[in-house]
Write a structure and sequence with these properties.
The chain folds into two domains: 241 residues, Type I PLP-dependent aspartate aminotransferase-like (Major domain) (Aspartate Aminotransferase, domain 2), CATH 3.40.640; 122 residues, Aspartate Aminotransferase, domain 1, CATH 3.90.1150.10. The relative contact order is 0.16. The chain is α/β, with parallel strands linked by helices. α6 links the parallel β4 and β5. The strands form four sheets. Strands 1-9-8-5-4-2-3 form a seven-stranded mixed sheet, sandwiched between helices. The longest helix has 22 residues. Helices cover 40% and strands 15% of the residues. The chain is globular.
Length: 371
């Protein structure tokens, strides 16, 4: 699914010296590399503040803590997402409320979002799934109407750009009160371990985020809030600084591969290719097809026999996951999420794919559907 080995070989020489510098200076935690990454990523995204942390899940938790959400407060999330989005809500003893998604974009459905709002609702967490922005103009409007916080889960879409109806453009993760991301090794901008970050244009909130991620202290051994230990280490920051310089190239490689897949599968009776929303660019963290009126699991087994990996992101919507089942949420309330869980299949998508590999994958997918 991801060729990290060849990606590393292509930038091996660029990474060696920054890593050696960290070792030579022994500034392993919150060192110069971390501060430099935060500044460079802020400039790239045109956002005022970037705060590094240990991983994307921690970023979500720190965001909710900094916004002052309290046990019992309701937070709306898409039903079709990775579990980390909901996990932190449960850990903080908040109440998760799931909303359905759009069939074409996989992202939060606005009508379902509106229906999910109650007097206890305090925040919305749109997830920019697979690499394309949620409909943020509509989501932000809903948030303004109901005085809600917006926390963008941007773990899969860093570098995607949203265009508002007035022509303004902003990067994913920079439009709500706070954005979060993950630098997990398979992400579009990734390190060689765990890592994450938070984004905000709010000066006061930035201070709270940074404090909470560092045990709740603004100065050493003086603790002004309950915090967590969630810091991005300098080795990972050094790697990310190098890879940030390549992010645009990585994105173009992903888009070129996605275009090849699109052309090959266009108008196929059993394959629906990923939609492109008019308001957002796509960075293709995943290339996810929907297999319609056919056996999705059979296709996956067929590809496995040909040594082609594929993954079902995600086999169950949130409301069907054992740890999160509640009588409040039924299958009938989330028809799109339930349908997607039975249709989606993500094909290999990475920056180092060779033409012969791409053509082999395409030919194999098409072969499966031949009579």
């Amino acid at each position: 699914m991801v060729d990290l080995v060849n990606q590393y070989q292509a930038i091996k020489d660029e990474i060696a010296q920054p890593l050696q510098n960290v070792l030579d200076t022994a500034a392993f935690i919150n060192g110069p590399e971390v501060k430099a990454l935060e500044a460079e990523l802020a400039q790239y995204l045109n956002v005022k503040h970037v705060i590094g942390c240990a991983n994307g899940t921690d970023a979500l938790q720190v965001a909710m803590m900094a916004l002052g959400l309290q046990p019992g407060d309701e937070v709306i999330v898409p039903d079709f997402t990775y579990i980390a989005t909901v996990e932190v809500i449960a850990l903080l003893r908040l109440q998760y409320v799931v909303a359905d998604v759009d069939y074409d974009t996989f992202n939060l459905n606005i009508d379902s979002l509106r229906k999910a709002i109650t007097p206890k609702t305090k925040a919305i967490v749109p997830v920019h799934l697979y690499g394309m922005c949620s409909n943020m103009e509509e989501i932000l409007q809903v948030a303004r109407e109901h005085n809600l916080f917006v926390i963008e889960d941007n773990a899969q879409a860093i570098g995607s750009e949203y265009t508002f109806s007035d022509g303004r453009k902003q990067f994913s993760g920079t439009m709500g009160n706070v954005g979060t991301t993950s630098f997990y090794p398979s992400k579009n901008l990734s390190c060689y371990g765990d890592g994450g970050a938070l984004f905000t244009n709010d000066d006061d909130l930035a201070g709270k985020l940074r404090m909470i991620a560092n045990h709740g202290q603004n100065r050493r051994y003086y603790f002004d809030a309950v915090g967590v230990n969630s810091r991005l280490d300098s080795m990972q920051a050094a790697i990310l600084r190098v890879k940030l310089r390549h992010l645009n190239r990585y994105t173009e490689a992903r888009r070129a591969l996605a275009n090849a897949y699109d052309q090959a599968f266009a108008n196929h009776p059993h394959i629906l290719t990923p939609a492109r929303a008019p308001y957002s660019t796509h960075v293709f963290h995943q290339y996810t097809i929907r297999v319609v009126n056919h056996n999705r699991d059979g296709l996956q087994e067929f590809l496995a026999k040909k040594e082609i990996p594929s993954v079902i992101f995600y086999p169950l919507p949130v409301h069907q996951q054992t740890a999160y089942i509640t009588p409040r949420f039924t299958d009938a309330m989330y028809p799109v999420s339930c349908r997607l869980a039975n249709e989606v299949l993500s094909l290999p998508m990475h920056t180092e794919m060779e033409a012969d590999q791409r053509d082999y994958i395409i030919a194999s997918v098409l072969e499966y559907f031949k009579p």
